[in-house]
Specification:
The complex is a heterodimer of chains A (103) and B (215).
Chain A lengths: L2 H26 L6 H24 E2 L2 E2 L4 H13 L4 H17 L1
Antiparallel strand pairs in A: 1-2
Chain B lengths: L1 H8 L4 H11 L2 H12 L4 H22 L7 H7 L5 H8 L4 H29 L4 H6 L5 H10 L6 H17 L7 H5 L4 H4 L11 H7 L5
Helix pairs in contact in B: 1-2, 1-3, 1-7, 2-7, 3-4, 4-6, 6-7
Classes of the chains: A mainly alpha (103), B mainly alpha (215).
Chain lengths: 103, 215
Amino acid sequence: MTPTATVAVLAGLAVGTYALKAAAPLTFGARPLPPWLERLTEILPAALFAALVVTSTLTHEGHLVADARIAGLGAAAIALERRAPLVVVILASVAATALVRAL
Amino acid sequence: MAFGIAASDAGLSAWETGAFSAFVFGGSAQFAAVDVIGDGGAPLSAIVAGLLLNLRCLAYGVVMAPALAGPRWKRALWSQVMVDQPAALGAAQPDRATARYAYLVCGTYLFVFWNLATLVGAIALPSAGDLVTDWGLDGGIPAIFLALLWPRLRQRDQRRTALAGAAIAFTLVPFTPAGLPVVGAAAGAVAGWRSRPADADDDADDDAHDGTDPA
């Protein structure tokens, strides 16, 4: 991505995110959100995190690929199942990815 | 630090990476946007994907607003740390004064630590593509997203939503430009919309064993 495009993403995301953060404290206060919006904020992250797991594991430059990152994801799942701290989860994934790639 | 490495992997400079952490300050959205950038997605896709993730900051604002009484400029400043941990900690306090204190201490700590760590990651590993793949550092990114998703998989509605989101993204990847599969996965929210969290508690024990492959 060109530097201009990166700055555009940075600016758009920074302004939009701040608007979401400050909307209640600065404007409408503690008035509750409409139920549908409340519900959306509860479950939307699950859909997006899952999608990001798929894209960051299985794609390379916009194409589906199966490579060593799958082993990394498996190692991360095992670490999470054993309630390992985040650093351990990441290191397990990195190690498994590197190991499989080196084979 | 992981964000610094992820952003370097996507080809961002240390300055750009640092600016993301300081001005956006929303971990998961930063990772999402940088992931889309790294895959060569359109800027708009990266922005929309990030903002959909940060939609929850709006709900945190509603919860924290009563505790954040004060002059307008202070409320404006305090709002920048309206992210998961400070909001959760603030909401758990018994009264407004303690809530504001907890929110601000946690938020300030997180902001300073997150930005310092980002710079360490971005400077320690300047965009050296081969190094990133040789060491398996790109394998750390899926682990971060999986870790963010993991606690949500205990509830049935969240699990359905996640499964639908993953399926949509997987289906869209071959046909759409990078970034759109993530944005499109938002439609997966329909799958978990009606089943309330309360439905899920009775089978929580079984779920500890079947949630190993959300992707």
